[in-house]
């Protein structure tokens, strides 16, 4: 016998769950995102600038040392014997050393500097430097500044107002972040 069909009541299909966020969930998400952005901007982003400091400090040290080496390799004074003679400026039978008030270049440009005090009051911003091979180093030192001061020095290394057998060379290198580093050396008339 064929199956008997029974009549059933028609029941509506169950509703599908609705997608989306409630207003409370959206507000909580925005607050959480705001806290995360504040944390990043206060704690993490400043570290990016500080991470460049050691690199700039190393470059400042290299620049300061290179300039100090360049200056120290020059003669003690304009009146020094550059041919390797036995007499030095200020000694009996030799020309007097340059007076403290006259320190500075003797009318020549930096590529012609021949004695230590020619560098006195030299200031260079965004330097164009060449290494021993003639390569331009300005790209490595963009926004670096340096200033040189030369003076006669007493036994304590302080500047003196009279001619002495020593000159103090002081180089101040400033990084793009405004940090200044001072390099100094004493050059003797020996």
Structure description:
The radius of gyration is 36 Å and the shape is rod-shaped. It has one domain (53-188). With 190 residues, it is α+β, with helices and mostly antiparallel strands. The protein has one helix spanning 23-72; strands at residues 123-125, 145-152, 166-174, 180-188. It has a 4-stranded antiparallel sheet with strand order 1-2-3-4, with helices on one face.
User: Quick one: biggest sheet?
Assistant: 4 strands, antiparallel
The total domain count is 1
Low-confidence spans: none
Could you state the oligomeric state of the chains shown? Answer: single chain
Helix content class: 25-40%
Question: What class, by secondary structure content?
Answer: alpha+beta
Mean pLDDT: 82
The shape is: rod-shaped
- Beta percentage is 15-25%
DSSP summary, beta strand count:
4
Number of helical stretches of at least 4 residues? 1
* Arrangement of strands in the largest sheet: 1-2-3-4
Rg: 36 Å
What's the short story on this structure?
The chain has one helix and four strands, in the order H-E-E-E-E. It has 190 residues and is an alpha+beta fold.
């Amino acid at each position: 016998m064929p199956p008997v069909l029974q009549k059933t009541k028609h029941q509506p299909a169950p509703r599908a769950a609705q997608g989306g966020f409630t207003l409370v969930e959206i507000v909580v998400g925005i607050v959480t995102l705001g806290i995360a952005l504040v944390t990043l901007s206060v704690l993490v982003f400043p570290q990016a600038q500080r991470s460049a400091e050691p690199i700039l400090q190393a470059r400042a040290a290299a620049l300061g040392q290179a300039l100090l080496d360049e200056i120290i390799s020059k003669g003690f004074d304009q009146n020094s014997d550059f041919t390797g003679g036995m007499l030095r400026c200020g000694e009996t039978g030799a020309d007097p050393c340059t007076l403290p008030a006259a320190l500075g270049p003797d009318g020549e440009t930096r590529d012609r500097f021949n004695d230590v005090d020619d560098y006195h009051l030299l200031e260079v911003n965004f330097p164009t430097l060449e290494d021993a091979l003639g390569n331009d180093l300005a790209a490595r030192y963009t926004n670096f500044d340096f200033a040189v001061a030369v003076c006669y020095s007493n036994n304590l290394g302080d500047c003196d107002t009279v001619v002495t057998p020593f000159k103090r060379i002081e180089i101040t290198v400033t990084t793009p972040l405004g940090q200044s580093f001072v390099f100094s050396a004493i050059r003797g008339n020996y």
